[in-house]
Amino acid sequence: MAYSIEVKYFNSFWLKKVVERGVNTFPGWPGLPWRPTGYPVWPFFDGGSVATSSDYTPWFVEESRIKGGYNNTTVDFGVKAYIAEDQSDQQIRGNSLIYSGVYNSNTGLNNTNVFSVASSITRSTDPVCGSIQKLYAEDSNLVIFQENKVSRALIDKDTIYTAEGGTQTQVSGQVIGQIIPYVGEWGISKNPESFAVYGYRKYFADRNRGVVLRLSRDGMTEISNYGMLDYFRDYLSTISDDWNINIVEKPLAGSPGGVLTQFDVTSDDCDDIDIGATVWIDNVDTVAYITNIVGAGATCTITISSSYDFGGGGSKTNAQFVTYTKSKIVGGWDNYNKGYVLSLQTTPSYASTDSDTYDTVNFDETVLGWTSFFTYKPTFTDSLKGTYYSFFGGELWEHNDQITANSRGSFYGTQSEASITFVFNPSPAVTKNFLTVGYEGTNGWEVDSFISSEQGPDLVNSIYTNVTDSINTVLSYDEGAYTESGVSYHAGFDRKENRYVANLVNTTAAQIGEVVFGASMSGIKGFFATVKLSTDATTQAGGMKELFAVSSNFVTSST
User: Can you give the three-state secondary structure of 250-317, one letter per residue?
Assistant: First the structure.
């Protein structure tokens, strides 16, 4: 709050407010008549009377003339800490940059907290392109990622244009020079967490335009076009910038009383309670969040970050768990496999790890394609000294572990199968019957699905349906082994001449126009077939599995 004070003689004053009154709290200012005991005498803004009340908050007034003598030398004002502004309201300029003074370790000069308004210390980008989401400095350039544009700015130099239309680079005293936009109307949307860099290549996602991009020496490239155009266009449309609030209410088990950091809730399913959720008791904020959940079924034990006083009467009845979630696009560079890993998460990893809440994919520069889907959902990822790391659940995890035995396919302590999906499409113009499937590789692979191209749509039970042929799962060599009358057989893959082979048995229901169908017919009919092979759960789980080639014998359909 400002005060207006009338001064009857020409002089300069400093006004300093004392918050707490007491003999030992007064600073020993020079030029004021202090008493050795009791309260000192000083001029007051209310007329100069001496304060007698201990709860009175005075204003000290100090002269700027040395010793306060008449016509003595006046103390200089020195450097101003600030200047008056016509418009002093706070402004949010999301498209602008500001920089401070420099820090010189040789001289000890530290001006990092100095923002001189007398200098040109701001640079602004086009506000039409949205706010600045990410800055990345490399060599002598600063790359600026806005929502709808990517630009670069020169650092410690500037570009001037000659009369002939050419350019010259001129070293200047300014920190950020001219801002030059890259060609193309792309940006990083509001997902700076998708950014990753390797060498001179920078990778990021533009959710607004449904693409994934690479920025390098040759400019901007839509790497999402490499066989995944439809996929990224559709999946990125499900990523939202809005915050979602999820509230789950559970009855308290028993009558908890006292100051507790753990309590039980009654629930038919604790999976809908998230670690990290804010905890409320009977709609009263506990200023705590969930750190652990133990148990399943009828009762779960909840551990919270700080203690809560339930009281002694046990009158509390319900607990509410509030989770704030927002979609994320987590990007990182895998320095071990040399690929860009992108995790598209409709809900963050702390809220849910269900398979329908994320897709984690990998882009390989050596083949210029998206090669893999991964079954882990990281908080964020990065590489260090040839090792790829990710964070999950507040912990750091190392990938591509070469020390722990049988740890392949294990992510965050959960063992997952490895699978590969591909298409058999020999002689594309010919209708075929696929009779067998075989592969070259190690033991432990099984066929999850072998599905023909769509035939239809046919009217089935008053509904138009695209009909396909399919088979039962082809078990691996170990899982399909059985003994009958002392003789060993294999219901799935059998090994012949160091290759694994199996017949395909059609399990499709009768279709229109078929004479022989179902288990009575061998093979899958269609122009092409989509096949998925995966590792089984019994043959050296977590061990190395190799797959060199997959083949199928087929005959031309008589129709």
Answer: EEECCCCCCEEEEEEEECCCHHHCCCCCEEEECCEEEEEEEEEEECCCCEEEEEEEEEEECCCCCCCC
